[in-house]
Amino acid sequence: MTSTIEYPEMRLEVIGALMSLSDPSHQRSRWGRFEEGVNYYDDLTLNVHILYDDCQVLPFPELSVPSLLYEAEVPALRAVGEALEPLLLDLGDSPDEDYIADPRWPVVVSAARSALTTMQACDESDRS
Amino acid sequence: MMLDNQLWLRARTYQPSIGRLTTHDPAPGRPGTTTFVDPRHYADNNPVNRFDPTGMFSQKATSGSRPGESSALGASGSEGGCGCNPVCHGAGVVDGVWDETGAIGEGVVQVATTNPIDTVIGLGSAVTDCLDEPLALAVAPVMPGIFLQADAASALNQGRRQNGWGHAFGTLLPNLIPFSVAKLRSATAASRDSKGVGTCWFDPAAPQANGIRIDVGIPGSSWPSQQVDHVVVRSGGRILGPDGKPIVGELRDNLQAHTPLSDWLDWNSWNVP
Q1: For chain B, what are the domain ranges?
Q2: Could you read off the pLDDT of B36-56 as tens digits, one per residue?
Q3: Is residue A86 part of a domain?
Q4: Within-domain flag for A2
Q5: Cα separation of A41 and A21, whole Å?
Q6: Which residues of A touch B239 (CB under 8 A)?
């Protein structure tokens, strides 16, 4: 695979968001926590911003090919949106804990994990 | 205008021989509209009651509002064509076509239609929607090329929309001149909440590369940079820090990349401090 990615830094943001969404342990321990002197923050809002607003790989991942995504990654990203959007519509500004506790949240985690695996595989293929 | 046997609809093209739009709507659809599901739809798949003069956003068809019809709206944008309070309109002339998509809540947005430098975006109180749609929008002919859309995190939070989160951005967009597209679109929606209330602007020619996200501050947030209105700037596919230089690493590792809006307003241009 030959890399056609135009904006690799934004792609890394997407990968970072998927990592966050795919790791329930990280979500419980880090989301919403601000630590004095630590230049790091993570929560669901940030990841929604990254995926929808900053990188715009959702809700139409196909529009991000080839600038941020490979064609092969589109279905996996689309699945993330399909899992996440109903929760966003239903839960709105509820605390992250409510999202995590929702019975549909594992589907989001699973979809994010699958998308992450797909993107990492494409990057690996690109390097080889 | 025909281009290569296709009808040019400003932001999109239409192929009459097959009766289809051949390009996607460059503006992501809003939740609750059919364009959100399928970007190939025209006018939210409701051409009888809506139309889309710019190819990017549908508008409710009212008497005199379609291109070619005599409009009841003056070029000054002083009167609303959908029957709502004139203050409710951020409407104006876009490329010579009256655009009343500016269905915005009274007190939410005020837009100067004559001088782009004076454009004011305010986030106010009640989100009263004169298009009977869940998302309040404002469109203005601010500057060719300034293109704002609803913050997705906010737009997706329609279920929790609340009134009364009074806030004002103040004069906001004097620095977004470099881009030349079609119009300004601003949205306020959802509540003042952890998912944020804000507005995104992007360059339609390179949406992933160039744009800004402006979020309303949450004074009670434990995250200091979220306590004030702040801006995330993307330029050339890189997120910029407050010094205008690309950050190293991810946004979550660079809290300073949430530039206070008050600082950003002093930048020399939208991406240069």
Answers
A1: 1-59
A2: 556 666 666 666 555 555 455
A3: yes
A4: no
A5: 14
A6: 9-10, 13, 54
Pairing of strands B198-202, B211-215: antiparallel
Q: Encode A77-111: b = buried (16+ Cβ within 10 Å), e = exposed.
A: bbbbbebbbebbbebbbbebeebbebeebebbbeb
Q: What CA–CA distance (Å, rounded) separates B93 from B90?
A: 10
Q: Calculate helix-pair angle for A74-91, A105-127, nearest 10 degrees.
A: 150
Strand partners, B171: B120
- Does any domain span residue A3? no
| Residues A69 and A57: beta-carbon distance below 8 Å | yes
Q: Which two tokens stand for residue A49?
A: 């911003």
pTM of the model: 0.59
Handedness of CA A70, A71, A72, A75 (dihedral sign): positive
Number of domains in chain A: 1
Residues 98-127 of A with CB under 8 A from B: none
C-alpha neighbours within 13 Å on the C-beta side of residue A93: 16
Complex-level ipTM: 0.93
- Which of A92, A95, A96 is the closest to B159 by Cβ? A92
